[in-house]
Amino acid sequence: MSTFERVREVVAKQLGRDPSEFTEDTNLVEAGYESLDVIETVFAVEEEFDIDIDFNANESAAQELVTVGDIVAAVDKELAKKAVQ
């Protein structure tokens, strides 16, 4: 399963919806997310991939996670860091 597919599963589960409803361009707020949902999704994604995403809900990084693709990019970035270590 690709990073996108795994992230999409987490996002869909968070909203209780079918994963097929989400693309990389899906805007999380337009999909029904509230700020707490984003935080919970980040935690779930970190657990799914065994990574730590550099995320602080009170900082601008939170504003960077607007779409499913943004979460995928954050995961890919952390996986690349992990691979180098």
Automatic annotation (TrEMBL):
Main localization of the protein described in the UniProt heading: cytoplasm
Compartments reported by the entry: Cytoplasm
Carrier domain ranges (all copies): 1-79
GO MF term (any one): acyl carrier activity
Record PTM O-(pantetheine 4'-phosphoryl)serine, positions in chain: S35
Pfam family, one: PP-binding
Family: Belongs to the acyl carrier protein (ACP) family.
Protein's job: Carrier of the growing fatty acid chain in fatty acid biosynthesis.
Protein name, entry field: Acyl carrier protein
Origin species: Novosphingobium aureum
Recorded name of the encoding gene: acpP
